[in-house]
Amino acid sequence: MDKVVRLVSERGVVLFSKSTCCLCYAVKILFQELGVTPTVHEIDQDPEGRELERALMRLGCKAPVPAVFIGGKLVGSTNEVMSLHLSGGLIPLLKPYQALC
What sequence ranges are listed for the domain Glutaredoxin (predicted)? Predict the structure, then answer.
């Protein structure tokens, strides 16, 4: 769990993903379209991937991937991110991390 806490504290927007996950891809594309480049950790390519999955579940993730953290806080998985976006709450959270155009 320490590794997850450290990783999410190092960057503003962090996404734990699996390279073959279509829902993870959807979240990546959403962030890209909103002008945000998250730090992506592909846990299926990490030797400690299983431990990361367990740590994410202990931190409250309903599913291990995608797991989105903004400003060091767990936002959730695809459902939470999309719901937040549709309700207008995602962009204000991402504003400090958007690329300058």
Answer: 13-75
